[in-house]
Design a protein that fits this description.
The complex is a heterodimer of chains A (112) and B (115). Chain A is mostly beta strands. Helices cover 0% and strands 56% of the residues of chain A. In chain A, the strands form two sheets. In chain A, strands 2, 4, 5, 9, 10 and 11 form a six-stranded mixed β-sheet that branches. In chain A, strands 1-3-8-7-6 form a five-stranded antiparallel β-sheet, with no helix packed on it. In chain B, strands 2, 4, 5, 6, 9, 10 and 11 form a seven-stranded mixed β-sheet that branches. In chain B, strand 4 and strand 5 form a beta hairpin. Classes of the chains: A mainly beta (112), B mainly beta (115). Chains A and B meet through strand 4 and strand 5 of A and strand 5, strand 9 and strand 10 of B.
Chain lengths: 112, 115
């Protein structure tokens, strides 16, 4: 079992709709979580971080964390074609010398 | 100017050759990292360094070595390149005072092909 699991997709969403990206993690010791966006052939770009249960909103993005269910999600409202990318879910394992554990990513396609 | 730079951006080499990938940063961060990414896979940590005298192996360090020449410079070497080291390589940095987040910031990547 991978430590951080994501559906590889592609997830196809109409322009203007809400895109919902999900992630589960296996290590209950994980303390912080990040969502990175990666365009094809480019480097990952941090878009959201969350470390407490509940929701965290930043513009069109909302990150959600449920530690009891070991579940992290990212909602993108009013999806735009420019949101088409691979979204990487990442956890920070407590006591791991600050190593990040990376999911393989979900490819998101926003259809005009 | 970019905060994290990598050179070269693209490199084609032959099996058995020694090559070096370089990373420089102007963010003033203490921590630096080298990752590789294979198509369809997540990032895998090769080596990381918390300061000039603190270098640690990551999950896939075999066949690689690193040098932290200064706070701002971190180089990755492939001593004898092999075809399955063909991948996209990223350098990243993070700030020691970043609290619990350890947010990492990435360079543009080096696309390496080993023939």
């Amino acid at each position: 079992q991978k430590e951080v699991e994501q559906n590889s997709g592609p997830l196809s969403v109409p322009e203007g709709a809400i895109a919902s990206l999900n992630c589960t993690y296996s290590d209950r010791g994980s303390q912080s979580f990040f969502w990175y966006r990666q365009y094809s052939g480019k480097s990952p770009e941090l878009i959201m971080s969350i470390y407490s249960n509940g929701d965290k909103e930043d513009g069109r993005f909302t990150a959600q964390l449920n530690k009891a269910s070991q579940y992290v999600s990212l909602l993108i409202r009013d999806s735009q074609p420019s949101d088409s990318a691979t979204y990487l879910c990442v956890s920070l394992r407590k006591g791991s010398n600050y190593q990040l554990i990376w999911g393989a990513g979900t490819k998101l396609i926003i259809k005009p | 100017d970019a905060d994290v730079t990598q050179t070269p951006r693209n490199r084609i080499t032959k099996t058995g050759k020694r090559i070096m990938l370089e990373c420089s940063q102007t963010k003033g961060h203490d921590r630096m990292y080298w990752y590789r990414q294979d198509p369809g896979l997540g990032l895998q940590l090769i080596y990381y360094s918390f300061d000039v005298k603190d270098i640690n192996k990551g999950e896939i360090s075999d066949g690689y070595s690193v040098s932290r020449q200064a706070q701002a410079k971190f180089s990755l070497s492939l001593e004898s390149a092999i075809p399955n080291q063909t991948a996209l390589y990223f350098c990243a940095t993070s700030d020691r005072t970043g609290g619990t987040y350890n947010e990492q910031f990435f360079g543009p990547g080096t696309r390496l092909t080993v023939l």
